[in-house]
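re: the backbone from monday

yeah here it is again, tokenized this time
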């Protein structure tokens, strides 16, 4: 009877967990920093090959399987892995196996199983999230830059988890000016246009991608999932989310359209960040605690080193995020919380960058130029973040990849922040440069020219610019190209009326 019970337990374990051994891609060289057991003395050099369940006299024992230098087998309790130093972690496979071992990912899989029901629920939530954002045009489409992102991801991770967990790594760029990124439980990496515009080098980008992939590879979303919390039914929760996202859809849909007229769309700073709300990130399991952030930071730093990037790449990105938060007044993001580390503590943990100019790469800035243009437009017209907008536009101009929108942004910021004859003439010059490009001509150009010519007391030029603007507005109205956007008909009529009044006003100034 005892034998039958043991066999039943063994078969149950095999059925429940689907596997009894997780084998490392390559052996990990580890050195004991103190005595582990009777077989493993302090200073012992081992080659760890995997984590396994062993069955001994009816007991199920979880062990790390290893070999001595002479090839003889040894094993020890995974809880004692902290008493070893890792040596020669010189490729991506070793980095991931190391962190999935030390972070408890492998032991959690063997002790709790794959938890497919739980993972399926998280996957369904991730799909709802992505589908809702896609419905309301919240993803930024730039196939050239997305292809570039995948070349970097392929360096960092194979994209598929070798331990048979479901999910594969892919990426989406979300339209949002706030610098943000997170990994969904199905492997989708969400990265904002704001974050891509905040960083200025490939080293920083690889650091960020490695950090987010680490959260997925280390199973942090599953570990954060709590079945007992009060969770709204899926349909109810995501219907509410869709309503909130829809409220800001117009803002993100029209930006950088050549016929976009700032001011005729409803915009709200409060709803702009709804896609990253606490309720959403809690439901998706991506509200990480301090230990998890530290684990992901550590993995990112090692990956940067292994791939021959600057190991301070992630720290540089965090320092830029900190500076962005300061110049845009987002002080709450700087503080962290009791369970979540502040930006300063993470930067100190990773190491300070003394010279940020070493992380300015013109080639990278050329690659990200379309995203910078998009974000500059958002920063100016919808949030009045003048310094942030000007910086992004200036980057594109300096690197020879500016389009009309960049010159318009720089011109408007210049006019808003100064009022001298020289500065106003510089504004006209910037607008003239935009005109000569003829890539995607903006109807707004004529309006901004008219306003600037008034400052310069050039009435004839101002009137001509406003008349051109009026013609373009009427053509836009006749084509009805923005009818699908909310409340635009009346707003467009108001803009036409304002322009007519300005033509009359110029004549009487």
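seq for it, each position gets an aa:
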């Amino acid at each position: 009877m005892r034998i039958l019970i043991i066999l039943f337990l063994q078969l149950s374990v095999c059925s429940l967990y689907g596997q009894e051994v997780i084998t490392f891609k390559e052996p990990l060289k580890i050195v004991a920093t103190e005595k582990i057991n009777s077989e493993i003395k302090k200073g012992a050099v081992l080659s760890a090959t995997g984590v396994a369940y062993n069955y001994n006299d009816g007991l199920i024992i979880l062990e790390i399987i290893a070999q001595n230098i002479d090839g003889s087998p040894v094993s020890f309790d995974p809880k004692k892995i902290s008493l070893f130093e890792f040596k020669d972690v010189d490729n991506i496979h070793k980095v991931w196996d190391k962190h999935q071992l030390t972070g408890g990912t492998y032991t959690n899989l063997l002790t709790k199983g794959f938890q497919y029901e739980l993972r399926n629920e998280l996957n369904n939530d991730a799909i709802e999230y992505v589908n809702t954002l896609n419905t309301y045009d919240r993803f930024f489409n730039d196939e050239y830059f997305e292809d570039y992102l995948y070349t970097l991801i392929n360096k960092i991770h194979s994209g598929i988890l070798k331990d048979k967990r479901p999910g594969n790594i892919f990426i989406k760029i979300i339209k949002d000016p706030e610098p943000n990124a997170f990994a969904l439980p199905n492997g989708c990496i969400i990265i904002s246009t704001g974050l891509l515009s905040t960083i200025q080098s490939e080293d920083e980008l690889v650091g960020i991608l490695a950090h987010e992939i680490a959260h997925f590879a280390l199973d942090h979303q599953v570990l954060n999932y709590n079945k007992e919390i009060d969770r709204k039914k899926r349909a109810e929760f995501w219907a509410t989310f869709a309503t909130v996202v829809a409220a800001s859809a117009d803002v993100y849909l029209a930006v950088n359209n050549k016929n976009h007229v700032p001011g005729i769309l409803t915009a709200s700073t409060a709803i702009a960040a709804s896609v990253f709300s606490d309720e959403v990130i809690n439901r998706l399991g991506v509200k990480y605690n301090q230990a998890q952030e530290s684990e992901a930071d550590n993995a990112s730093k090692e990956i940067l080193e292994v791939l021959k990037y600057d190991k301070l790449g992630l720290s540089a990105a965090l320092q830029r995020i900190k500076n962005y938060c300061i110049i845009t007044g987002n002080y709450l993001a700087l503080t962290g919380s009791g369970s979540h580390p502040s930006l300063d503590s993470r930067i100190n943990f990773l190491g300070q960058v003394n010279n940020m100019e070493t992380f300015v790469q013109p080639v990278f800035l050329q690659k990200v130029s379309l995203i910078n243009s998009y974000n500059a437009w958002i920063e100016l017209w919808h949030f009045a973040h003048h310094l942030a907008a000007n910086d992004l536009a200036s980057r594109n101009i300096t690197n020879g990849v500016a389009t009309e929108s960049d010159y318009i942004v720089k011109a408007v910021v210049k006019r808003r922040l100064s009022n001298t004859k020289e500065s106003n003439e510089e504004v006209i010059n910037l607008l003239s440069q935009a005109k000569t490009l003829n890539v995607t001509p903006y109807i707004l150009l004529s309006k901004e020219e008219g306003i600037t010519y008034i400052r310069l007391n050039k009435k004839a030029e101002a009137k001509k610019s406003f008349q051109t603007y009026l013609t373009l507005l009427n053509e836009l109205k006749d084509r009805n190209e923005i009818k699908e956007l909310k409340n635009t008909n009346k707003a467009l009529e108001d803009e036409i009326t304002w322009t007519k009044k300005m033509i009359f006003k110029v004549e009487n100034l």
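The first strand starts at residue 21 and ends at 32. The longest helix spans residues 459-479.
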